[in-house]
Amino acid sequence: MVWIRLLSYKTILQSILIPLSFVTIFLPQISYGAHGQEISISLDSALYIPLTGGGNQVNVLAKYTLNDPSLINQMINSVMKVYTTNGTLIKTSSSSEGFIANQTGIQRHATTISDSALQNLIAVVQFTDLAKTIPLSNPLKVDLTLNQTGVL
After folding, report:
1. Residue partners of 135: CB distance under 8 A and separation at least 6
2. How far apart are CA 138 and CA 135, in angstroms?
3. How far apart, in whole angstroms, are the C-alpha atoms of residue 127 and residue 63?
């Protein structure tokens, strides 16, 4: 009797697990559960230039494409972090209101660095949810060198 009961449980488990594994293996993934892949970003242009009133300005224009169509016309945000070449974070900036996501576009990121002695910096831009807590894009790393010829 116990032997028959064990066989029944084994049969039941096999009849459930085998179809479930088929569904898991062969159905395409259609959700963006892994955050950071909903939007693809790449560099359009970047400048690091002195300001006439003192300090230097970092400007990064990031091109973006939405991979997740549910984000079209939704409010999102982006964050730019600026580091020294040794990896020290010196500035974080973002929009206070966010912006409306289109299928594709370009988003400007700008901040002022008060230490005029810094010649080389690294900027990292990443698109996020409106609250700036969940990454929606790949991080975009940009190496910057102070351009002494351009003045804003």
Report:
1. 35, 36, 126, 127, 128
2. 8
3. 11
Q: Where are the domains of the chain?
A: 39-145
Query: Check: CATH 3.30.2320.30 for 39-145?
Result: no
User: For the chain, how big is the Rg over CA atoms in Å?
Assistant: 24
pLDDT in tens, the chain (152 residues): 444 454 455 554 455 444 444 433 333 344 445 678 999 999 999 999 999 888 999 999 999 999 999 999 999 999 999 999 999 999 999 988 999 999 999 999 999 999 999 999 999 999 999 999 999 999 999 999 998 654 44
- Cα dihedral 130, 131, 136, 139 sign: positive
* Overall pTM > 0.85: no
